[in-house]
Write the structure tokens for this entry.
Amino acid sequence: MTAGTFTVQVCVIDDDGAEDCASLLVEVSTPANRYAIFAGRDDCGSGSGTAIHWSGSKTTVTGAVHSNSGLKVSGSNNRVDGVTSYRCSTHLSGSKNSFIGGVTKISEIQPWPTQLTIGDFACDIRVAGTLDLARDGAWWVGQTKTSRQLQPLTLCATEIKLIDSNVTGTVTFVAGKVQISGSDLKLQAHQHGVLAFATGTSNAIKISGSTSQWTGDLLARSGEIDLSGSNHSITGSVIGWTVKLTGSSWTISTQ
């Protein structure tokens, strides 16, 4: 089914022939979560140039991890609870890493698992330049940052920064580059099941800090997703041209 918002109408006819109808809107998300982590780079890199470079520790991934261009694992005590597949070269080192079902090499290029573009997002606020959410603005409930709660909205800008702590909200960030850092952030996706959608290259989406919870997909159409920091939880897919995991004690799940 094509992703988008659709109108569904339901009608009921009783024994006397009287009819009553009601309509509701149903949003269908693009099935990005076929993978917990997907790296779409299609030129065979080597070493740190692989599409997925995993050097962190104590991270658990529930779901499939897929790389179109090599896999390098050098951390420790990481666990992938599902099939890990790759093409090109692999570099497995470190210690006490667990890949349930082993590592399966494939030869074909997998298709990009989402067809979303910037045009699919409806921007509630659009900024030409850098949007720094640590400043006061209309995106805060009650128009003030002291509430620590973001309005349910989609923010679009050249670059978006959220460097703060103890912030909650239902948001979608659409930008060339998205940077999120701080502690105890609890954010969930506002649109299309996507928390962050970026179109830049280096560090298109960068998450650091500690002890935060993200519910929604992280999508970098042509760039790198950099996951550092510690004790973060992602419920959704991590999909980029390349993916770098240097943090510790993450949990990533599509459930």
User: Anything to note?
Assistant: Residues 44 and 69 are 5 Å apart (CA to CA). The longest strand covers residues 149-165.
